[in-house]
Sequence to fold (1011 residues):
Amino acid sequence: MQDTFTNFTDTILAHAASRPKAVALADDYCKLTWKQLADLVGRASVWLNSLGIAPGDPVGVRMTNSIDHIILSLALMRVGAAKVEFGAGETGRKFDGMIGTLKVGTLFIEPPARSLGAIRCVKIGLDWRAGLSAFKGDNKHPDSYEPFDISLSSGSTGQPKGYPIGHAQLFRRTHDYLDALGPVGMFSNDGTGNLLLTSSMSFGGFLYTLMMRLGNGGRVTVLPEFTKLMDFVRAVQAEADAVLMLTSAMCEDLISCAPEDGILFPQVRAIMSVGSPLAARAKRDMVTRVTSNFLEVYGGTNFGLISVLHPEDMLDHADSVGRLFAGVDVEIVDSADRPVPPGVTGYLRCRGSGVSPQVISEAPQGRFEGFRDGWCYTGDLGAIDSDGYVYIRGRVSEVVRRRGVDIMPTAVELALMSHPGVREAAVIGLTRAGVSEIIAVIIPSGKPDAQAFHSHCIDLVGAGQAPGGYLFVKQFPRTSAGKIDRPKLRQQIGKKVEATATKRPVI
Amino acid sequence: MPTSANLTDAIFEHAAKQPKMVALEDMTGRLSYRQFADLIGRAAVWLRGLGIEPGQPVGVRLANSADHLILSLALMRVGAAKIEFATSGAGAQFDATVRNLGVKTLFIEPPARAAGDLRCIAIGPGWRRTLADFKGDFRHDGASPEPTDILLSSGSTGPSKGVPCTHRLTLGRLADWNPTYLRAGMVSDDYTCTFLHVSSMSFTGFLIPLLARLVAGGKIVILPEFAKLLDFVRAIRAYDDAILIVTSGMCQDLLSCAPEQGLLFPKARAIICTGTPLSAETKQHALRSLTPNFTEIYGNAGAGIVSALFPDEIPAHADSVGRVIPTLTVEIVDGADHPVGPNVAGFLRCRGSGVVEGLIAGVSSQAGFEGIRDGWYYPGDLAAIDQEGYLRLKGRAADAVTRRGVQVFPTVVELALMSCPGVRDVAVLGVGAGQDTQVVAAVVANGQDAQALHLHCIGAVGAGHTPDSYMFVAALPRTAAGKTDRARLRQMVQKSIERRRAVS
Fold:
């Protein structure tokens, strides 16, 4: 990648010039070479120009994953528009709110969606790509400091926020990912490896990884979204030299269908988990039963890569999210913004050229979320030990104060999930009649045993942090990115507790 | 076809005659007829090793895949009585069916776990590798009277009923598909055309035509189940010269993606729709916007195909489900089993070589409208036949509602409402008893105008058959086979009526 590039999509043109016939983008039925991809991105940018899309215009995209969706995204980048990705099924008040807050003027949709009243909708039909042949040339906007994307935070803790990310930040992150993940085969700039796109592009982590792979000249294969887990497993098995990025929930799914003896994906090149941290048990299961080249990455769409946990660390450091990446400036501070000693939990903050410079939000921001004094506060509570391993203790906004003690849900969840009988756990705080209590909501992996889970939890985090009640469920409500939808869960559990409390008074 | 034939014999014959021809393709790759037959043989030996005996009822609860088809055919080869369950199958109804049919062994796939007393065998991602250790073949003589397949009726009006089929009966039904395929737009010995398998194998309307293509030596492609409609559309469009069978629900979905002008599937050979009948407008729309080779089939678990409405008949007879196929005898009779005249609605009954001779005790409800009497199979459908032989369905006998002395046929009212602009889906049912009986329409629509629906309905079917009230819902509950789940809908409607009463 050259430093003279001003628009991220220049990388696509450079790969088209150096390796025109190599495959850039594929799905089950079609393959595009770098030359074809660069050509289509150019034509689509001219088409966007004919629609009147100007540099800096916020535009929305509400589409399923597809080659067309990627071409459109790259073309929007090329003309300098600021794209906002919405999940394909996204509608309702939250959606309308974001459209208004971000001042989205044009929305790209696909069949069978209908146009909305208040906003210009452009339909990307099944013959869209074929229709681009009527447009010729290229329409490049050269400013790398304009945002190309407004990344929506997942909204797992409330109203989503928008983080504008510029071309310059994506360039920086593309270098970072190659430095940090190149040596382990997850990233490469020699054309090897085949990134499988396995989750919605509306999830920033997947969108940026996809863009960075293309920026480094790596091949990307778009998988459809399957309703059956085994279909997903078969699709992955059918791909050669695959690299995958998965959410922690997807990792748990794969573990559930891994064979008792042997490895589920012996032919896969590497798998990397992102999003909420996995339980230590699940990380070890991933390495021993799914693929031996398994990594966990901690980062965020608004600040980029923070740490990487490598397969060789799974034995001794599976309870961490790995070591700090050398290229990033990270600190753990106390409530007066003073750095704390190694091993002490505090607020995680970072800065650097890969960090998004601002946040667009109508909801009030907490003191330890967002931007202050040149730092980006990630909203995470964490600790860094003297060897540089990072431990995530939870979200600042989820901390529950019970009887004067701060309880960090993530730490308790990870402790619970290290028990073999717990498939997934969410720890939430509930306040009834002025009294706060914390409840563990658990998806058990067999017959649930609250007593055993409780003593296990006390052993690991102490009685002061252990939940006051246990509830068992079959499934969690989830956001479109696959994270647990905590506001919804809190509501459901609140109702459930209320219902039982009225029947049977608490003594 | 000799009477001793095991249904799977045809695959082994193709393997000998055209070993390299592609039989099967899914995401994991392609299998030639020779590889396919070899795997079925090995799987049959593996099944014998598990102690699976001829005639033994065995459950299969797997998603679609090449492995699933290999296992199903191996079970047919060893003569086990296979029951295909939807992957969502669980709960009280599933337990009751398993108990009544005497199923002791169930094949499941990860991440499902063993359930209760059943012996559960997981067909995981490494299953095919396991088969490498088994050699040879085990073939059961197909002439034996034991069933080799127990079909479950859709269960849209109550618990599923068990329909036992022998190899001979199934082979008869497969033969019925060849002339049907022929008129639907392809020739029976055409190996170039691809059969796209797009719905659960637990739905009998899909498995039989798939087997018919295999017996004819054709190529099958198994598509995964897509979460996004557009991925499904893209997958179908990617195949040249494909034939596919869709449910009426899928057909509506596909039409929602159709372009304003031109065809959604210009390269497809033919599309056949089965299940709940489509409205006349929808059939014409499909012919115009999906493919000009659009055919509708009416059939059921007890008789196989009953009638077909071919592309050339849709312009003039779109309100019918076509004419009865030549190998089947169909009559419309009144409550005393006397045949009625043309255009008079009554109970449909049929007999022929593809019709079952008995239903499984405990699972079937002989006392209901579905059953076998005096050598005739009554599927429980109400219908009329016109002078030219076109069959019009009037709904399920169990769903017919007597309101103020007039019999209202929900299907007729549903079809009338479906032709209203903006209506995407509808189900009509009766609630209450005796004097309090009311006819309620549950409607999925863009925009809610009960008055317009009501006036349209009175114009189409008359005031005597028009619903008393309209309830607008986001979606209708569906069974695994994609039909409206009337039992659940009835609960929804009753709850809504109670709520409204409580408020007023």
Observations:
- The longest strand of chain B covers residues 423-431.
- The domain at 400-503 of chain B is CATH 3.30.300.30 (GMP Synthetase; Chain A, domain 3).
